[in-house]
Design a protein that fits this description.
Helices cover 39% and strands 15% of the residues. The chain contains 13 helices and 13 strands. Strands 8-9-10-7-6-13 form a six-stranded mixed β-sheet, sandwiched between helices.
Length: 345
């Protein structure tokens, strides 16, 4: 169906294997306690070292695990209509909250034969370059299909923006051509107060991993009216090293000062702020919460409500994902929406 002739199952399996090798290299690096400045030019770990303070070694490794898991799960959707002589270019403008976010959307388009030109923030570009170089070992055509650019976008047939274009003027200008804008402020889950210690640690990890900046970070909670946050705060202590990141801590102090100056109700554990003021949903170092009654539609809320599957609720104006998104689904979470968009171009 495309001029690239990619076999989706084979390419995703091969990319998963290559990502696994890269993860092994990172693990060896960590096990041998190599110094950061000892990584040579040809060393994969050294390649990923950059100035972005959010893309720490641990966050890069964690994102690679998500990549491998998602690639192993494979594409969930295919284009519903064949595109016999595809010679179209898709522009991507991505503002990743964690390393490699947006790569699933890019791969989906590339595997289906589209040329992809990708614009990223300067401090995120190097991580993508390093990953694409590794993927190029699997199939050189893939590397040629995905081009990272700087400056103005070249001519394109359609544009996909992911957490980009907060400037309404720019968004209006780009809307003159076919476009798909996906914007996320994180996930929300329901807690009952009966969660085990292990479950709360998992919730805390979803809040704190990637400094809470991932598209799929837990940014909002639904809790009973008498919910006690002490056990959740205790679970969060496993991740208090986040406060050592100067940029993260600046966000925390800034929002804390806003809360104090404006008398906004909040709880504070020293590096995370919890507030019922939903206007602050999605902010770094802030988690919002709302209350619910223990009976919903005449039935008690159960722990199943925490992990129930997420439906295909993508939309052009999506802000918050209701429910958690499993790691194996994160990479190609938007494939249904992108499939429909690409088929219409």
């Amino acid at each position: 169906m495309s001029n690239q002739n990619f076999n989706a199952d084979l390419i995703t399996e091969a990319l998963s294997d290559e990502t696994g090798k890269l993860i092994g290299t990172f693990a060896d690096y960590e096990a041998n306690s190599f110094k950061e400045d000892s990584a040579g030019k040809d060393d994969p770990v050294g390649c990923f070292k950059q100035d972005n303070p959010w893309f720490t070694h641990g966050n890069v490794l964690s994102s690679l695990e998500v990549l491998r898991t998602g690639l192993r799960a494979g594409l969930k959707h295919i284009l519903p209509d064949a595109i016999p002589d595809n010679d179209k270019t898709i522009a991507f403008v991505i503002n990743p909250g964690a390393p490699f976010e947006g790569m699933g959307e890019i791969l989906f388009a590339a595997v289906h034969g589209f040329r992809c030109v990708v614009k990223l923030p300067p401090d995120s570009k190097k991580a993508f370059e390093c990953l694409l170089a590794c993927f190029g070992k699997v199939d050189g055509r893939l590397q040629k299909s995905i081009i990272l650019i700087e400056g103005n976008l070249p001519p394109y047939d359609g544009l996909i923006g992911i957490n980009a274009f907060e400037n309404k003027t720019a968004a209006a200008y780009l809307s003159r051509k076919p476009n798909l804008m996906l914007s996320f402020r994180g996930c929300t889950v329901t807690l009952t107060g009966d969660e085990s210690k292990g479950r709360l640690i998992h919730v805390a990890e979803d809040i704190c991993r990637y400094y809470g900046r991932s598209f799929y970070s837990l940014k909002s909670l639904r809790v009973p009216e008498d919910y006690n946050f002490n056990d959740l705060f205790a679970a969060m202590e496993h991740f208090n090293a986040n406060s050592n990141n100067h940029r993260y801590f600046n966000h925390y102090e800034y929002h804390k000062s806003i809360f104090l100056i404006n008398g906004i109700q909040h709880l504070d554990n020293g590096f995370i702020l919890l507030t019922p003021d939903l206007e602050h949903t999605g902010k770094t170092a802030v988690v919002t919460y709302s209350h619910y009654k223990l009976l919903l539609e005449g039935k008690p809320v159960s722990n199943e409500d925490i992990t129930k599957p997420v439906g295909g609720n993508n939309s052009l104006h999506q802000a918050l994902i209701n429910g958690t998104v499993k790691e194996e689904d994160r990479l190609f979470y938007n494939s249904a929406a992108i499939s429909g968009f690409l088929s219409a171009i």
